[in-house]
Amino acid sequence: MQDDNDRLFLAGQHYDSRLLVGTGRYRSLEEARCAILASGAEIVTVAIRRLSDAPEGSGLLPMLRELGCSVLPNTAACFTVEDAVYTCQLARELLDGESLCKLEVFGDESLHPDVRATLEAAERLVGDGFQVMAYTTDDPLIAKELESIGCAAVMPLGAPIGSGLGIRNTLNIRRIAETVDVPVLVDAGVGTASDAAVAMELGCDAVLLNTAIAHARDPARMADAMRHAVIGGRQAWLAGRMAPRDYGVPSSPMQGVAGTDA
Fold first, then answer.
1. Are 158 and 168 in contact (CB under 8 A)?
2. 70 by DSSP, 3-state: which?
3. Residue 187 and residue 206: Cα distance in Å, rounded?
4. From CA 84, how far away is CA 94, in angstroms rounded?
5. Fewer Cβ atoms within 10 A, N terminus or C terminus of the chain?
6. What is the number of alpha carbons within 13 Å of residue 188 lying toward its C-beta?
7. pLDDT tens for residues 66-116?
């Protein structure tokens, strides 16, 4: 049974769900709505710069408000510090003063984070009163630096955005989860439910994903699978896994078994 007291605490708020989802790449607004409902997500991220060009158009934000979701604006498609900062300021006006934002600053068309630009943008945004959730590489030292700047959360990639490759460096993700005191969310690279479970078993506080659901054959069913995977992974981490061994150990005692001399 899930512990009702084990809730995600992020930027001063408590959330029951540890799964955050996006809104891009869906074939229709209705498909996005069904998937978001199935995911159980309470926080949904929206690309502010692409909002006006999205297929669902102006219906997206009203739909999210109708579902009762918290809207997390992100700076997708930003390649400079100035663009990222401006996009967050625009989002704050659009969303009635919302200070929580997901910071993404890309280095090139591969969408790999530009770490130096991310650090600079994070410092400027925190100084301007934003609560910054920073998308970054899986470098533990950079994660600690983002925390020291004052970011509300650190979001290391599991693999490149949209790749679906799963977590490629579990050692670094575990190290970040162990050493950073603000919430740690794996962001990018999750391809299926087992990837989300692994992220949680490594000690991450939550998972953010989009493409794995939107590009599934049945997005709503995949969203439901991700919801259960995050819950299961969290429960496994809280339970504490057995120590791995490089040899077999019988699951039942051998003494006193019929047909033995013991």
1. yes
2. strand
3. 9
4. 15
5. N
6. 22
7. 999 999 999 999 999 999 999 999 999 989 999 999 999 999 888 899 999
